[in-house]
Fold each of these.
Amino acid sequence: MNIVALAGGVGGAKLAHGLTLTPIPSPLQGEERRGEGMLTIIVNTGDDFEWHGLHISPDLDTVTYTLAGLANPDTGWGMAGDTFEFLGALQRLGSEAWFHLGDRDLATHLRRTELLRQGKTLTEATAIITRALGIKATILPMTDDRFRTMVETDQGELEFQEYFVHRQWQPIIKRIRFDGAETAQATPQVRNAIAQADAVILCPSNPFVSIDPILANLKPCEEFITFARFGKPIAAVSPIVGGQAIKGPAAKMFLELGVEPSAYAVAQHYAGLVTHFILDQIDRDQENAIQSLGMKTLVTDTIMKSIDDRVKLANSVIEFINEN
Ligand code: FO1
């Protein structure tokens, strides 16, 4: 069974990690195997930006560090045990330092930027970095082209990191715009992963600013259109539990866009695309309403506090897709 997971930052990375640790049924060989190319994670790059001349890909790095066991357990992003000497020195020279870039993390951005300047694509640079960190699963940026998530707010239109990190997602959202979406294309590697996939899983990432940018790249692809037309499973795990986002501004965004945040609201957002929906026990009263959107449902524990939780959720999702 070939699984393609779509992921943004911290929540997506946790489920993706669980998937790498979960035996995925392999009908072709009648046995269960781990990893080994059966899992591809397509990652949002709408949050990417340039910082002091470096190409920063926060979601690619969050997924990479999480799978490599290097992520900072307190924040979910950045590296565990990192120091901030460089940032402090930069600040002393009068530079802004609102984006907290650690010293070890900096090496990733320098290496990525160096590879891009040598003419490598972001996909190739990501493969070199993930292989160097010992990751077996394939991590793919959603596109190699320029694609930037822009947030139209009561304080004007803001680049994503300006909205998210600098202004700590306090501005009121009016609209989200994907700059470059008209010309950006899914890569051959992304299209090939979809062509080979038996199931696509939308990880519990922000629907508006993590999953939608990836879908904006996938939806025009012949491979994705064919995948959906054949009714192959597209499963989504709700990032909203008990009306709250597990992390980040998803619930606040729903409210500001005029929708009461709930697992049902997430299902409605994905209606017409998603075939299988996974919601938390706490939201079980919404199961029937979600089924009435034409989705099969699984009610289970979706909050991932430990690595064991990640594996359990990944297992449940795989079993649910496989048996339904
Ligand atoms: N998120 C923050 O809230 N504050 C930060 O200072 C910050 C720094 C940072 C550095 C490297 C990196 O890879 C990610 C970082 N993030 C930070 C997270 C990130 O910007 C967001 O979580 C994502 O863009 C949303 O998925």
Note: DSSP finds 13 helices and 16 strands in the chain.
Amino acid sequence: MPEIRGEPADITATASWAALGRHARELQAGGVSLKGLFEAEPGRAARCTTAVGDLTIDWSRHLATETTLQLLAATAVEAGVAQRINDMMSGRPVNTTENRAVLHTALRAEPGRAVTTGGRNVMPAIAAEHQRMAAFVDALHASQRTGATGQPIRAVVNIGIGGSQLGPAMAHEALAGFRSGAVECRFVSNVDPAALASGLDGLDAASTLFVIVSKGFSTAETLANARAAQAWTAAGLGRPDAERALRRHFVAVTADRDAAQAFGIDPASIFTTWDWVGGRFSMGSAAGLTLMAAVGAENFMELLAGMRLMDSHVGSDPQASVPMLLGLLSVWYRNFWGFQTRAVVPYSHRLRLFGVWLQQVIMESNGKRVRRDGSPVGCESAEIVWGGAGADSQHSFHQLLHQGTTVVPADFLVLARPDADVDTVDAASEDARLRHEALVANCFAQAAALAFGTPGDGGDPHRELPGNRPSTVIMAPRLTPSVLGQLVSLYEHLTVVQGAVWGINSFDQFGVELGKTLADGIVSELRGVPGAPTPPHDPATASLIAHYRRLRDT
Ligand code: F6P
């Protein structure tokens, strides 16, 4: 295993961790309240609101005093968090279990800068790949990319799962107002045949292009869908020379070019990603090709510029950065208040997939029980991330946020102006503005109700809201590619901060492997593949298989 730099034995065994524990117990015993914190400090709202780029981050409604922040900062120092971020951004192999660098920040670094890993500057390759992507997308938009029958491509279907879909699909939705309209883009991830069927609904094979995104090019769901897409295309084209014809309709994005080629993808249509870009952090790589096809190269580059802005904020002084602060606050709640989850509630229809994207980023990165050296993590690690779009969420799960027995810190995202496409689709734009204002008001009201509860006391307990429930409000002027990039990078860094405090390797995901192996065995048994060894099953699985067969075959 590569040398681990500046890593404490176990953060939970440090003096600063013990001090945080004492401090938390004191605050809890003293009944610290958000109401009390605001009463004691009239300037708290202003002091605890930080601007970075286009984002205004209001973190005033947190159960944290100046002392809390000092102790959290000391913990970050003791955990070597800033060092870990610097190591990551400068290409050291911080993914220790796989001995890989983690360089998603290089994908959006200042062109012309050198970022090296293993003695190699990765920036020229990144720039070249972005240029290839842009040329490809320009050709698509100019109707110069034609299918096998000579028809211009009109629809692009992204086939990929996890990090090869969640980020680009989220951004595709978020940036609906920036889509060029030259091609229609869709995303298919699930191996459920219904997913591909609805992804292909209404499309014509002659004018449809598939982008198969798979870093390893071995993901079962993606390959199964890609094969089905090949069959659909061949049938739709009705060409005898289907194999050659198919090549016009498939491109791949992968770190394993050989596997993509073996699958039948034309080498000239293979875009590269690298083993030093984790799937869940890969939106700025060629994994974002379909997104770029939707919004155009310029907007894609703006997205990267937004990420770069937040990366520079973090890189210039990690310890003083907003992702550090927010990451440390999540550690505070997770480890010293026992809060188990984080609700992510964008008050933006277009950002409604943001939490779905973030689930993978936080939970696949930090949902781990051992530290980088293999020892037990010694405390709770990643929180469960969940949520949904406000105001819909208010009519669904906010009851629990306000009066449930569990406290859920919430992240509210809100925009000062309506989503970019509203002006064009909503004829009554003044009315749209007013409805957007109602949305914003609801966001502010929720943060207030959570923090301060019902005024007065001694009322009807059924109607009383206890308050004292923390939240962050992140506001931006408007949902632009740059703003989205800033948000994405903020949460990516927050995730890295958490993992660094816990001493976790945030960049592997071995927890998902056993299920894949078991599924492989079960699927060959269900299909009755001749000669395939029947794997031994546990009794519960054997019983499920028997029930399934009975239902399937009757
Ligand atoms: O199974 C988990 C995972 O490896 C994710 O980390 C990844 O984003 C996803 O599968 C897809 O992987 P690939 O891009 O290699 O198909």
Note: The longest strand covers residues 341-347.
